[in-house]
Every structure is written in C-alpha cells, then in structure tokens.
Amino acid sequence: MSNTNETQIQLTYVQKCSDLLPSIYSGRRPTYHIQNEGCQMNSLQTESVAAMMEKIGYEKIDSEEADAVIYNTCTVRENANQKIYGHLGHLKSIKRKNPDMKIILFGCMMQEQHVVDTIRKSYPFVNLVFGTHNIHKFPELFFRTLTSDSQIIDIWKESDEIVEGLPTSRKYSFKTGVNVMFGCNNFCSYCIVPYVRGREKSREPQAIIDEIKSLAADGVTEVMLLGQNVNSYGKTLEHPVSFAQLLTQIEQIEGLKRIRFMTSHPKDLSDELIEVMAKSQKVCHHLHLPLQSGSSSILKKMNRRYDKEKYLGLVDKIRTAIPDISLTTDIIVGFPGETEEDFQETLDVVSKANYDTAFTFIYSKRTGTPAASMPDQVPEEVVKERFSRLLALVQENGRKASSRFTGTVKEILVEEESKEQGMLTGRTEHNLLVHFEGDKSLIGQYVNVSLDTCKGFYYFGHLV
Ligand code: 5AD
Ligand code: SF4
C-alpha cells in the first residue's frame, strides 16, 4: 500500500517547522549535522531526512557543533551500537555548552527495546528517537521536538505502508540508489535485520519506474536497486512481478545507462534473472552473492536454505551464462559451532568461486536472534586467527580475479577527483575502481580508459 496523502501531511509539517525557525534562532540560519551508519538502504534514508532538514531551512555542516545532530543507526553488528554510545558521550559535552541543541537518533538500532530503555534511562539529553518504520513522519516528529523540551520516543513495531514522494537528495548528480523493497523474511539465524526492518514489502513497479524516469530526466545514468533480498521482489504485490521482469522494464528507460542491484540471496536467484542479466545492455555484470559460510552444516544452522554444492553450482551456472561476471560476497567467521573443518570449507569456496571482493565479518552475537542462544560460541582468539587467514586468501584471490582486465579498454563512469592532484576516479561496469589523469569536467561522463596496471582492488589507467 502506498500513501500520497501522508506525504501531503508531512509537507505541511515541513512548512510549520520552517515558520518556527525565525523566532527560535533569531533570524539566523540554523545548522544540522547528519551521520549515517550501515548499509546503502540506510544511506538513502539519511539522504531523505537530510533533504527534509534542508527544506525546513537548516544548513548542513560537517561538525557536531550544530543546532541539530542526527544519527541514522545500524545494529547489524555489536560494534555499530558501541559507536553510537561513544558518539552520545561526546554529544553530551557539546550540549552542555549549547543546551538548545537537538539530538536525534533513528534507524535500525532504535527498533531494539533494550536500546530505547538505555537511552531513556542514561541519555535523557537525546531529544527524539524514532525507528525504521516511521521515517516518513520525520517532519511531524521534528515539529514536536522543536516545540517541546521532553524526550520524544516514537517506535513502530511494523508497518505495511510505503510512503512515496517524500523529498530526497543525492550525493552524486549522475548516480543513485533506489529502494525496490523494504524488510526481510529470511530470518537467517544470526541476523537481526528481520526484527528491526520488519516483513518484506515491495514497492509497486510503476512507482519505481516513475522514480527512475524522473531521475533519468534529471541526469542520473546509473541506478543501484536496493533491497535486503531483491530476488524475492514482487512476490507479495497484488499483481506479482518478478525481479527479472522489473529489470526488463527498467532497462527500457531512456537516458539510463547502467543498472546495478543488491543484495541477492543465493536461494532465490532465478534462471530468469541470469538470462536477463546475460542479454541486457544495461544491467552491469556484477553480482553480490553472499556466501556467509562454505560449510553445509553451518549453512543449515544459519538457516540459509542452500548448501555448499548448490552455491558452487550456482556460481558455475552464472559464469557459464556471463563469463566476464564479477562476483562479490559476504562471509561470516566464527558462527556458533564452526569447527576448523567447517572453516576449511569456507576457504575452499573462496578459492573456487573466484570473488573480486569479499566482505568478511566476525560473527557478532545479536540479542533475540536464534544463534545468540546456540551452544559452542567460538572463542575470540580462534575466530581472530581464522579471520586473518580468510582475509589473506580473499585478498590474494581478489588481486588475481581483479587483474583479469589488465591491458583492456573499458568504459568508465567518472565519479570524482581522486586524492592525487590531476587524477580522476571512476568505475567499470564490473564495479572496479580506476584512477587516471583527466580534467574534472569529465565527472559524470562515460569515457574509455585503458586499464594499465592492477593494484589489487583498483587500476591505474589512461584515457584513450
Ligand atoms: N554477525 C556478523 N555479521 C553479520 N551480518 C549480518 N548479521 C551478522 C552478525 N550477527 C553480515 C552478513 C550480511 C552482511 C550485511 O552483514 O554477512 O550479509
Ligand atoms: Fe539478514 Fe539473511 Fe535477511 Fe540478509 S537475507 S537481511 S542476512 S536475514
């Protein structure tokens, strides 16, 4: 269900907040600072809240000494939570000097009851706390924050509503992420996402297409379609549509040159999708296919619903259909009960799958997930030692896999100036970074670059 009425209501709150600013700040333009933790879906929501703050009349600054400080939080691993508590300690001392400063926390971490209890008890100077299901209510919540001194906490357990058409902004003028779905139904046993992001909800295909058409008309040529599990896109819509069908429709949008997507769950990756990717002129030959573990028995305990053989079979099928595909993955080390033999199976898949990049994580116990109460939690020293062995292999394989394009000419979307003077940075369709000499007027353009030397995970090249 989508709701444009709600958008109208919130836009009136934007105006109401705006009207309050001159009296609160005596005519000067107030400032805000916003920080994002976590995944690309969080980044999109951060951009949306930032756009609403700008519409209200705040100016963005890069320092926490602002009139409003906003954090979009992540809770996928414990260290993300610790980071937020660390920031709050720092903000407390800033707020002592500026008592009118508004501190706002939202996002995944706020969906956990114990976090909200802690904030209520130990961080009374936080002004506003909301979660993942009511971000569209931000203007209304912010209005209450501006007009009240008490701590406002508004966490929704779940929502079946998708609110379309809220203000948003983007970091690059020429590329952006687009949400296609929210939430996750998979309940991998280590993962907190289904509890904090709720059940899977897909956006209507027409809403997605309309958004991308207007982005393309505004100069966007590359989109990244985002969802926790894009391969199950559309299953719960009134008129079900597959993700492959959605891609086929998006491909027809004029002006769009590149389509990326993430994340794919191996259990749902269809032959139809592989075929669409292979035939498409616009869908990039890059697939992020989280492995998590190479051991079939650990995968079972993780509730991943595939085993080592099925995963490797899928990799073979993809490589046969799309020989130049770049594969990337996520791997967790130290899941409860992981033995050295299980870990060897993970190393074996890494050697066979030939990933360009693998994101490696140390297992983090998340309260409330089934894995948190599983026996045989692996001792920290053992996990750390396995982690460094895995990292070494991933890096060695990544270097080999990434260097396969050395000496070829590839089309690059130029993204920004590189740290080195006179150099630009861009990406190939395989998502490989390339640095080369060029003028910054090329930013946002597609240029042909010869990939001269591979430096592991990036190339040095020259314009041709
Ligand atoms: N511990 C460590 N890594 C995790 N991930 C998700 N939950 C956990 C956890 N409890 C990783 C998975 C996922 C990525 C986004 O984060 O690898 O694919
Ligand atoms: Fe978490 Fe698994 Fe859902 Fe990914 S698919 S968000 S790892 S539960």
SSE inventory with pairings:
Blueprint: H1 4-24, E1 31-36, H2 40-56, E2 59-60, E3 68-73, H3 78-97, E4 102-107, H4 113-122, E5 128-130, H5 138-146, E6 152-154, E7 175-179, E8 181-182, H6 193-197, E9 201-202, H7 205-217, E10 222-226, H8 243-251, E11 258-262, H9 271-279, E12 286-288, H10 296-301, H11 308-321, E13 326-333, H12 340-353, E14 357-362, H13 380-402, E15 409-417, E16 423-427, E17 433-437, E18 446-454, E19 458-463
Parallel strand pairs: 1-2, 1-3, 3-4, 4-5, 5-6, 7-10, 10-11, 12-13, 13-14, 17-19
Antiparallel strand pairs: 8-9, 15-16, 15-18, 16-17, 18-19
Helix pairs in contact: 1-2, 1-5, 8-9, 11-12, 12-13
The structure holds 5'-deoxyadenosine (5AD) and iron/sulfur cluster.
Ligand set: 5'-deoxyadenosine, iron/sulfur cluster
Structural class: alpha/beta
- Mean pLDDT reading: 95
Ranges where pLDDT stays below 50 over 5 or more residues in a row are none
**What is the quaternary state of this protein?**
single chain
Give the CA-based shape.
Answer: globular
The share of residues in helices is: 25-40%
Question: What would you report as the Rg, rounded to the nearest angstrom?
Answer: 23 Å
Strand content: 15-25%
What is the spatial order of strands in the main beta sheet? 2-1-3-4-5-6
Helix count from the secondary structure assignment: 13
Task: Profile the largest sheet.
Answer: 6 strands, parallel
Number of strands: 19
Euclidean distance between termini CA atoms: 49 Å
